Amino acid sequence: MSASVGSGYGQHTRAINEGYAERHGYRWIVDDTDHGHGERDTRWNKVGALREALRAMQSTGEEAVMWIDADAAFTNFAAAAHELLDQAAPSEDLLICRDLSVPREKPTCAPICLNTGAFLLRNTEWSRQLVEHWWGALRDHPALAFGGDHEEAMLAQLYGTGWSGMRDKTKVFGATAFNSVPPFLADHAPEQLVMHASGEPSAVRSLIFGRIASTLAPSPSDGLPWLDIAPLLPKLHPLVRQGYEAAHAKNPDDPKVASVLASLVSESKEEGSAARARELLRQAMRLSPTDANLAVTYGSYAAKHMDDWCDAAAAFVAAVRLQPDSETSAQLLRGANQKCAE
């Protein structure tokens, strides 16, 4: 099951995921209910949707439910998602991937990072209790209702405290077993079950998933929907740059978009790419003056690609000011100052 996000990339992931469900005989549910009635971030809706699904499944006999975010899609149509259950112990009711996309100090990590972009719950009483407690625990943690730390952080807290034997009831898979590692397309293998464009601009998601959805076709052997991602992967990479260019044109004041676009421009080796990438990073640093990592990125780029050690030193000064305890920034500053003085 997944959320509904209307038009745009959501229509493409829906088409792909519906095709995957049809191929494997799964019941596919799209949930567009605001379960929190505006009092929670929309990402909490997955917990509300799972509460309803697991309640209904008490009488259906179905083995498990799998949630997949609207910015994710199945890309290996040969693999059946229910076979993941065989890779977990019968007593493990929550099947979820590690999350390598967030800093470990974030509250979504306790003691390991969990990615709720795609996960499975067996049809058990423990699973029903989990989603009920997960939903209700917000009463004691109202700060998690909105913002960057939301339902994922709440689940991490439950896992960290070992609620109701949760660690023994959870099978934590590798980050790409049925999810993605940022940058989501860079190392995506054809056998990877799910592609998850977490945190990507809508323009990137629309181009990537639209292209994938356009290749869906009935299999000549059985007439069921089929998708072969392997020959498509090389054609998707240029679309990431195209999507970031569109996103930057639409919102030039987004520092994340500017910094990622800078990396993509630099990798292109086009004429003038080094200067443009530098300016994009400079712009991102101006837009996010409290981001020490961005200051380090800009300084490193100015030194390595432009041989401008004095400009690099100025950026490292900002980084040290923002993170005075960072020995890495201090070392970079000392090295840049020495080069600048030569």
Describe this entry's structure for a reader:
With 342 residues, the chain is α/β, with parallel strands linked by helices. The protein has twelve helices and ten strands. It has helices at 9-24, 45-56, 125-136, 151-161, 166-169, 202-213, 233-250, 255-268, 273-287, 292-306, 309-322, 327-341, and strands at 2-3, 30-31, 64-68, 72-74, 94-98, 114-122, 170-173, 194-196, 217-218, 225-226. The strands form four sheets. A four-stranded mixed beta sheet has the order 3-6-5-7. A two-stranded parallel ribbon has the order 1-2. Strand 1 (2-3), helix 1 (9-24) and strand 2 form a beta-alpha-beta unit. The termini are far apart. The relative contact order is 0.10.
Question: Layout of SSEs?
Answer:
Layout: E1 2-3, H1 9-24, E2 30-31, H2 45-56, E3 64-68, E4 72-74, E5 94-98, E6 114-122, H3 125-136, H4 151-161, H5 166-169, E7 170-173, E8 194-196, H6 202-213, E9 217-218, E10 225-226, H7 233-250, H8 255-268, H9 273-287, H10 292-306, H11 309-322, H12 327-341
Parallel strand pairs: 1-2, 5-7
Antiparallel strand pairs: 3-6, 4-8, 5-6, 9-10
Helix pairs in contact: 1-6, 2-3, 6-7, 7-8, 8-9, 9-10, 10-11, 11-12
